Amino acid sequence: MIPGGGQPNMQQLLQQAQKMQQDLAKAQEELARTDVDGQAGGGLVKATVNGSGELRGLVIDPKAVDPEDTETLADLIVAAVQAANENAQQLQQEKLGPLAQGLGGMPGLPF
């Protein structure tokens, strides 16, 4: 039986929400410090983003550089960055998914 005539303890709910917000903030900070890689062209172009999706590095193998065909190089760069961002999104889901689900539906929270 729930004390208070079946009403949930608001103080407990608020404490749980605050803890989940703190856990979420901690996970977001951890993501921002975590680097994730993506590549294209069989590794000719490698992009590194942090867990938040911010581009942190780009490595281009000299074999990918053809002055007569810069469009292919541009496509490889875009593909590598997209791959890195997809990996970052997957990491976000792993780290933040359970926390965001726990906070979902609570008024005033951005989920």
TrEMBL record:
It comes from the Bacteria. Residues 10-37 form a coiled coil. It is found in: Cytoplasm, Nucleoid. The keyword rRNA-binding does not apply. The keyword Disulfide bond does not apply. Keywords: Coiled coil, Cytoplasm, DNA-binding. Pfam families: YbaB_DNA_bd. Homodimer. Binds to DNA and alters its conformation. May be involved in regulation of gene expression, nucleoid organization and DNA protection. Belongs to the YbaB/EbfC family. This is Nucleoid-associated protein GCM10010346_52180. The lineage of its organism: Bacteria, Bacillati, Actinomycetota, Actinomycetes, Kitasatosporales.
